[in-house]
Amino acid sequence: MPHPQAKIHRMSELIEPIGAVTFSAVPNEGFLALGMRNYWDGYFAGRAAPLGSAPAEVVHAVFYNFAEGEVARHIPWVWGKTTPQEAIAVRERGSAAALRQWIGPLADSPGLPRVIDLATRAAVSAPAEGRALYAGLRALAVPEEPVARLWHAAMLLREHRGDGHNAALLAHGIGGTGAHVLMALSLGMRAEKFGRLHHLPEAQLAAVVDGLRGRGLVDADGGFTDAGRATRERIEALTDELAAPAYDVLSADELDELITGLEPIAAAVEAAND
Hints:
It is built from 12 helices and no strands. The protein is mainly alpha-helical.
């Protein structure tokens, strides 16, 4: 029996901060030690590593929401400094270290093994068809160390959901840069102020916004129309729907238990980030 969509969405809110420790300072330091020039070299090396030494065009397609040419500034340059295998190891080590640091005593709590078991069961049983990044991660060995295993499970579930989100965007005719425009507007920001967009050439960003305006999704002032807001809500609902099969392996009680177990962990990570 399918789980309620609200619980699937709640899982996304909990796995996001846990998985996203991989984009924090400790893993970044590990990549800089390998000779990366900046944060984004490490980001692309670590996140793309499960795809092997795929060319920039493939990484761009799989990641979906970076502007044309951004990936190529890092891939394949990073593979002259490290290998995908080494990048995977550095990312896992740094992410587990950061997570352990941020959750403190929770890392040794007696209930943690059960939470990790439930999260891992869901993470390794989701359907992989059409989910290239998730499938690449699934092909890796699940870490033995408990905190590393928790991070790995969260990252698997995060990328499974992310692959589905890209499919939802594609189905609604929203490209990668357009997705960031909609995200900026949903946060109450103008597109040109959003972190992933502010560096783009003005004409390039304006063309994307004009395209969304022509579809009736953005108004004359560059804000959401009702249709634009409704489109974003449909995309988010479809993303939840496509993420749901990951949790079919868990009973309703087990999913509730997983949510309850992850809540203090995610809260601790968010508090550490604040």
